[in-house]
UniProtKB/TrEMBL annotation:
Cytoplasm keyword on record: yes
This protein's name: Cell survival pathways protein
Organism annotation: Paecilomyces lecythidis
Main location: cytoplasm
Pfam families tied to this protein: Svf1, Svf1_C
Length: 378
């Protein structure tokens, strides 16, 4: 009966029944035994599942000249009926005096290479090099956003736990859904994005994330917090989601702190807290104003580790009404579930917040550039 209810929910977009916290095997359980594992080349393969899922490769850019941008490839399958691919690019107006430059375009004739490591479509090539440590993204999908970027990792990538994946389902041996994240937290970025008005030099630092939601997004998570903080010495990343009540409102947090050439800490014993929030009058979500993000655990050599980022998020960079902005195939996945009204609140600051790091007896504090998202779904 649970299987039948789940199948109906997957196809029709209905709200799931309450399965309880035992129906999720969060990656935090794996992390108790294996806090993290460094990525191999094989970990970067596209899964391209033939059941309901959304798979993304996202490249976040913090250029030396202050440009903040992201590019993303989305592969989506709806109930094994329809597969759609999309290319998104966004240059954020960080001075808030101009509109963001946002493009979302459907891809045609998509394909993967034989190894499933590189992706292509008409006027698009996303290619991983032979060494497995550098991506090139070349896109002429939209003439108003011509992308030519190289992302080269300067620190090891990682997944939290053994495989970076949380599994959903009442039968633990045969889960019906999953959620996974793999990170390159510190990358060297080179290249340009050319719009109608100008060419943006995006040389600087970046973060790459390969993510897979192997089920309907609103069934997997009710809310999210995402932190990308880059300083001259450190990169700190955190991804936290809270499941809907269907899975016991379980909180799953993965993240890490790295320097060039090494992972200082990675694991699942982290926290994301909104210290102050204000009710958004347009949609009633509690828009965060100040927040505190903490990474806690041990270094590779078993020294106590603690890092925190604490303070005002500043003026909101953007508020994205997901159902208004995203392509139709995402709307098809979301369905018409009562109470599902996803909004993403995005924040950015440069040299206004500092990452405080304590590894063993060594303490440092360093200002850096923040990109943070708080997402409310249901």
């Amino acid at each position: 009966m649970n299987w039948l209810k789940q199948t109906v929910a997957n196809v029709a977009g209905t709200r799931e029944p309450i399965y309880g916290p035992d129906a999720i095997q969060p990656v935090t359980q794996q992390a108790q035994e294996t806090p993290y594992r460094e990525l191999t080349k094989d970990d970067l393969k596209w899964r391209a599942y033939q059941h309901t899922n959304v798979e993304t490769q996202t490249f976040y850019i913090m250029a030396d000249n202050g440009v903040l941008a992201m590019v993303q490839v989305i592969y989506s399958n709806v109930a094994s009926i329809h597969t759609t691919c999309q290319f998104n690019s966004k240059i954020f107006a960080t001075n808030r005096d101009a509109p963001h430059i946002w493009h979302s375009d459907g891809l045609h004739n998509h394909l993967f290479d034989e190894s499933m490591l590189s992706f292509g479509a008409d006027n698009l090539a996303l290619t991983l090099n032979e060494a497995g440590d550098s991506y090139t993204i070349k896109s002429a999908v939209n003439p108003d956003s011509l992308v030519n970027i190289t992302f080269s990792r300067t620190a090891p990538g990682f997944v939290v736990g053994k495989d970076g994946t949380s599994y959903f389902g009442t039968d633990h041996k045969n889960p019906w859904g999953s959620m996974s994240h793999a990170f390159w937290p510190r990358c060297k970025v080179e290249g340009t994005i050319t719009t109608k008005e100008k060419t943006y030099d995006v040389t600087g630092r970046g973060l790459f994330i390969h993510a897979l939601q192997g089920m309907k997004p609103h069934h997997a998570a009710a809310k999210w917090d995402f932190v990308n903080f880059q300083t001259p010495t450190y990169s700190a990343v955190m991804m936290e989601f809270t499941t809907p009540p269907s899975y016991g409102s379980t909180v799953v947090n993965v993240g890490g702190v790295v320097k060039d050439g090494e992972i200082i800490y990675a694991g699942a014993t982290n926290t994301a807290k909104h210290i102050e929030a204000a009710q958004d009058t347009e949609n009633d979500w509690p828009e965060p104003k100040t927040a505190k993000f903490v990474w806690d655990g041990k270094t590779k050599d078993e020294k106590p580790f603690h890092a925190e980022l604490d303070g005002s998020l500043g003026t909101r960079l953007d508020r994205v009404d997901v159902m208004a902005e995203v392509p139709g195939f995402i709307k098809a996945i979301a369905g018409s579930v009562a109470g599902t009204k996803p909004y993403i609140y995005q924040y950015h600051s440069r040299d206004e917040l500092s990452l405080k790091v304590k590894a063993g007896d060594e303490e440092t504090s360093e200002p850096g550039t923040l990109f943070m998202e708080a997402t409310f779904i249901s």
